Amino acid sequence: MHPAYSVIVFTIASGAGYGLLIWLAIAALLNLVPRDPVLGFFGFGLALALITTGLLASTLHLGRPARAWRALAQWKSSWLSREGVAAIVTYVPAGALALAWVFGEFVPRQIAASAALAVPCALATIWCTGMIYASLPTIRAWHQPLVAPVYVVLGLATGGVLLCLLLANFGHEFRWAAIATVPALALGAILKRLYWSAIDNAERTYTAEAATGLGQFGTVRPLDPPHTQPNFVMREMGYQVARRHAERLRHLSVALLFLVPAVAGLMLLMNLPNSMQIVIAVVSAVSASFGVLVERWLFFAEAEHVVMVYYRGGSA
Amino acid sequence: MTSLPEPNQKKLGLVIDLDTCVGCQACATSCKEWNAGGYSAPLTDQDAHGGDPHGTWLNRVHSYEVGDGGGSRTVHFPRSCLHCETPACVTVCPTGASYKRESDGIVLVNPDTCIGCKLCSWACPYGAREYDYDDGVMKKCTLCVDRIYNETFEPGDRIPACVRACPTGARHFGDLGDPDSAVSQLVKEREGFDLMPAMGFKPVNKYLPPRPRRDHSAAPTPQATEQPVTSSGSLADRFFAWADKTLAR
After folding, report:
1. Which of A177, B42, B186, B209 has the highest CB neighbour count under 10 A?
2. Residue B129's closest chain A neighbor by CA?
3. Which of A81, A138, A208 is opposite residue B123, by nearest beta carbon?
4. Which burial class, exposed, middle or buried, applies to A160 when counting CB atoms under 10 A from its CB (0-12, 13-18, 19+)?
5. CB contact, 8 Å: A243 with chain B?
6. Which domain holds residue B83?
7. Predicted confidence (pLDDT) per residue in B63-102, tens digit
8. Which residues, including other chains, have CB under 8 Å from residue B206's CB and lie 6 or more apart?
9. Predicted TM-score of the model (pTM)
10. Which domains does chain A carry?
11. Residue B127: inside a domain
12. What ipTM, to 2 d.p.?
């Protein structure tokens, strides 16, 4: 599948934003950090900016961005619509929590109630994002049970990396954040490895013979293409990344997205000077950003669409 | 609504005879001609006179080499929307622009509410939907909904443009929900089949298999072809070309 930058930015930014929002809400619920307005301003500011940037980036993928609001209509059948609705709904508890935290003026239980609501809303939104892809049986690499869980875990892991950076930067206790982030990174690495193994070993059940119904006459090989230049279907669905490159990029994403931030998380647990801790947290965040970029690019580039058997023959 | 309507008796669709199709592209060009001015207008092309001409077409005709050695044959294969009974392209649509008509089962896109998210094209295994790069919305076969009910036409012309244009009578239009209709009878006689039935979308359109060969003279086996996806030459593409080279070392 063509790796559209708008969709890559959308899934990465909103995933990290919701992840950060979830961790901040948990911190508020469990009183893990003082309600410092500056931390609240930058923490929720960053989370909501990432979420909003992601959602706006996703509209750039549309042929008619001005009609984006229409996407909220069909939540009964469409995961894309559900994602949009969940994203809008999540703004309510997230906004209530952010305002209460930053301005310190709130009705009783506003913090507890909005934090308790923000967590499931944000989790549901990331889950819907994953299900947009996982619900498509036409794309073997996406129609996998691990796709939506990986989206959620990577959101939590990248959000956790950002949280460590924020807490270290504003001089707050961050050990709990590092202790929470490292297992999220480890779980992400395990799920991602299982996912890659699943898509590499998944049976290629859809063949050119089944696609044309001509299997009874023997193997089906493309002879004359229907058009001389690639059309929309080939440009959108026919993207191919060389297997050797995919292998290297997988290693690169594991190193940048999981290994470096996990080591950084462990180093944050040691007694180091605060300036060095900030540097470590920055390195971790930058590394994770590039790592998740490679991971998400591969998620699209490696996915093969069944329609290509009409053009290329073989199986998908 | 992109929830599917209650199943209806009437299922309008096409029956395509792979035995008599000669791959002349008349169905594809007449489809383009009619729809560029009809329901699907504008049906745009990009870079039509440049180095990378492409455009939105609702019907594509492939040619395949099927079988090996002396038993091999060339099969021309028109591919368009199959107006599935349970189409995923409809249920994934977030706006309701993609819908299946309750009255006759035709799957349509409302060009006034489509946001151009392209998710329906991802959901379709048959490549039936093409994005109109200039119009910003998805285009697909309408079964010539603006011809088949058009009372200003002679009754003989109230059929899809592709069926009207086919010089070999390889395309048939009718109600596949009626077991006594001519198309249903044809499917029964010739053992018509569904494409990729395992996908579970229950295509309405049927394909008729090539008839058995009468002679067994040897046929050549040409090589399969593949069209490369060309670079647009943008900064990003050049970056990936560089990354491609670097990673290949």
Report:
1. A177
2. A233
3. A138
4. buried
5. no
6. 12-248
7. 999 999 888 999 999 999 999 999 999 999 999 999 999 9
8. B13, B14, B15, B16, B176, B183, B187, B192, B193, B194
9. 0.92
10. 5-312 (1.20.1630.10)
11. yes
12. 0.95
